[in-house]
Amino acid sequence: MTPARTFANRNIALFGLGGSGLATARALAEGGASVSVWDDNQSAREKAVAAGFAPVDLSKVDWSAFQSFVLAPGVPLTHPQPHWTVERAKAAGVEIIGDIEIFCRERRALAPNSPFLAITGTNGKSTTTALVAHILREAGYDVQMGGNIGVPVLDLAPPSDARVHVIECSTFQIDLAPSLDPHVGVLLNLTPDHIDRHGTMENYAAIKERLVASASFAVVGVDDDFCRGVCARLQAADRPVQAISQARSREPACCCYDDRKLRRQVALAGEWRVTETLVDLTSAQALRGAHNGQNAAAAFAACDWLGVAHDDIGRGMKSFPGLAHRMEQVARRGRTLFVNDSKATNADAAEKALKTFENIHWIVGGKAKEGGVEPLRPLFSRVTKAYLIGASSDDFARTLDGAIAYERCGTLDIAVAHASADAARSTAPEPVVLLSPACASYDQFPNFERRGDAFRALVQDLVKAGDAS
User: Fold this and answer.
1) What is the rounded CA–CA span in Å between residue 171 and residue 206?
2) Would you place residue 34 in the very low, low, confident or very high pLDDT band (cuts 50, 70, 90)?
3) 163-168 and 142-147 as β-strands: parallel, antiparallel, unpaired?
4) Where do the structural domains in the chain lie, given as residue ranges?
5) Please, what is the end-to-end C-alpha distance for the chain in angstroms?
6) Which fold has domain 5-97?
7) In 178-326, which residue ranges form alpha helices assigned H by DSSP?
8) Between 310-319 and 125-138, two packed helices, what is the crossing angle to 10 degrees?
């Protein structure tokens, strides 16, 4: 835990008692603050009571008694309309902050020069955060990883000059951290997401930009127009910035992914460029695909800035196990590779897996999102056969009819069994059984994690059965 001692002897209101909210309440109380906690949800309040807090109905108190208001990142700050607690705080002139802001204030008080890497982006931020943390741990660093991934930031050990914090930041967390000032800030990419919570794409992008604008060193993707604009503004302001790309780029200096290698290209005169190979990712099985190439480029740039030896970065990338449910390679059975991409809950997410693999036996379906799998039609040629599960089966069958061989399996267990059997008969050098549903899970599973866990268990049973035969 990082006790919030910069808030000692202050009266703090806190709304939102999920995992990060309770962690923040504990850190504030440990630091000597008086904390009034509340949540509109009765079960959340009961958890707070079990944790030793007596909830205070914030709709019935005098807000002028508070010096700060801590809002959980899942609660609307501005759009579609401010939460009622936000209106109360503004009316009373009380600052509105989140757990990342508290961490930043503690860092400045305890160890202002301690390594603090903050990572954001629409896609890939969890993988990049985990990859950076893995590389640094393998290189011998004392690493604390958390934030929007895994452990709430204030449940981590306190900042110190000998400790590196690698923190994933959502847009909601950035919006509640007005003094966010990381040692290294990473902005991977920007595509429309959570616009209902930010009003416009421009507002969403401006919030993301704040993370790198205040960083001592910025790493910025240049594969979309919004991020290219961010990178250009940092360069114009003469700020230290490294451009990254998932392909060769026209940026004068760029760390890019090309032919399964990380390369650094530098323009010396006009169109003449010198390219240096940094890491060969051919054997980095958890970093397949151009999108992971961008993640790897970001990780390399961040670790390089910290002074990690290039050989150590390369070794860390090759030993990186990847994240569960994100193109997770769960097993091999003979030549067949089984991949759990359960987090692909829409077509845009499934596209990355379909671009990465070939000879695919594709398990697809669930509760369909708008547009279904029609946007994936250009990649159908990479699919040997599709195995339809869940409520979307009728709609997806109409889309696939005449384009891909498919069968209606209904449930995941039948799909895994049939896909595995077909893959075993394939003559391809590496047939792939891929769970990349392009759908939400709610028709058959409570969340994508449970769906992915079920796939993994089914595959492991197949592998065990094969070993026993």
Assistant:
1) 10
2) very high
3) parallel
4) 5-97, 101-319, 328-468
5) 50
6) Rossmann fold (3.40.50)
7) 195-198, 201-213, 225-236, 290-305, 310-319
8) 120
pLDDT in tens, 67-81: 999 999 989 999 999
Q: Which CATH architecture has domain 328-468?
A: Alpha-Beta Complex (3.90)
Q: State which CATH number among 3.40.1190.10, 3.30.460.20, 3.40.640.10, 3.30.565.10 fits the domain covering 101-319.
A: 3.40.1190.10
- DSSP letter string, 29-83: HHTT-EEEEE-S-HHHHHHHHHTT-----GGGS-GGG-SEEEE-TTS-SSSSS--
How many other CB atoms are found less than 10 A from the CB of residue 127?
Answer: 27
Strand, coil or helix: 366: coil
How long a stretch of residues is the chain?
Answer: 469
Which pLDDT value is given to residue 45?
96
pLDDT of residue 270: 61
Alpha carbon 22 to its chain's center: 22
- List pLDDT tens digits, range 404-462: 999 999 999 999 999 999 999 999 999 999 999 999 999 999 999 999 999 999 999 99
Instruction: Name which residue leads in pLDDT, 101 or 259.
Output: 101
Structure tokens belonging to residue 344: 């692909």
- Start-end of H helices in 111-194: 125-138, 171-175
Model confidence pTM above 0.85? yes
Alpha helices in 320-447 (DSSP H): 347-356, 393-400, 412-425
Question: Do the Cβ atoms of 279 and 314 come closer than 8 Å?
Answer: yes
Cα–chain center distance at 260? 22
